[in-house]
Design goal:
CATH topology of the largest domain: Rossmann fold
CATH class of the largest domain: Alpha Beta
Oligomer: single chain
Number of domains: 2
Helix content: 10-25%
Structural class: alpha/beta
Distance between the termini: 19 Å
Shape: globular
CATH superfamily of the largest domain: Response regulator
Radius of gyration: 21 Å
Order of helices and strands: EEEHEHEHEHEHEEEEEEEH
Number of strands: 14
């Protein structure tokens, strides 16, 4: 990462001419733009370029590149065959920890791929400000700055059970070893005790006690895990493995 080392100039007394000095900024990471439209490709390229992240446009017929080439992230439409493409990338030795961004689709579409650990979604129609915000918030993972990023953006279906036995489902936004942020049709009151359950890629379904600690008007809310519930250690181990720390 960073700048390539520039060779020292030759001493004028021992050479007739000095080689020209060149400096090239090396891309810190590569993102595959899989089967995107020209307009979406251009916008994604401009957003990632702000953080020295290179984008590579890959047409559908060249999907095998996701097996043989190393990419830090991939953006792909949430179409009917998205699951097979995500699984192909996830199961390749080079890209098992690749960050996957979906493009378009509904929350239900995203949930279809939750077990494959879909990280985040760019909503359509694409808006520059919203796309830039998502790239900025996830860039540390794409750049492999894992120690500076303790939360993992991941979309998966979360079952929630309240003390009185009522149940609801929500969609996770970010998960850490200490808690998670979610979005649902119903927003529980702060202070409510809950038990959440979910599964992630290589992590079988896990149950953890917690408490609702915040909520927002956009139907988002946060749950802090109970520090005395040892079941959350399985999640912590999974996060450490996912970040390869």
């Amino acid at each position: 990462m960073g700048f390539q080392k520039i060779p020292k100039l030759m001493n004028i007394s021992t050479a007739t001419a000095a080689a020209p000095i060149t400096s090239h900024r090396k891309a810190a990471a590569r993102v595959a733009l899989f089967d995107l439209s020209p307009s979406s490709t251009q916008l994604m390229t401009e957003c990632f370029r702000q953080f020295a992240i290179e984008t590579i446009a890959i047409p559908h017929e060249d999907s095998g590149r996701l097996i043989h080439e190393k990419f830090e992230a991939c953006v792909l439409p949430l179409t009917n065959d998205a699951g097979s493409i995500i699984e192909m990338a996830r199961t390749s030795p080079s890209n098992s920890r690749i960050i996957i961004f979906g493009l378009g689709g509904s929350a239900q579409d995203a949930m279809r791929y939750s077990k494959l650990c879909l990280n985040a979604v760019f909503h359509e129609p694409l808006e520059r400000s919203a796309a830039m915000k998502l790239v900025r918030s996830t860039r540390m993972l794409v750049l492999h700055e894992f120690r500076r990023y303790v939360r993992i953006p991941v979309m998966t279906e979360v079952g929630i059970v309240f003390d009185d036995g009522t149940r609801m489902t929500a969609t996770s936004h970010e998960i850490s070893s200490g808690g998670m942020s979610l979005k649902g049709n119903h927003v529980p009151e702060q202070g409510k005790a809950v038990e959440v359950s979910f599964s992630l890629l290589t992590l079988p379904r896990v149950w953890v006690r917690g408490q609702v600690t915040w909520k927002k008007s956009n139907k988002c809310f946060g749950i802090r895990f109970d520090a005395t519930d040892d079941r959350r250690l399985r999640l912590k181990q999974w996060i450490v493995g996912y970040l390869d720390a």
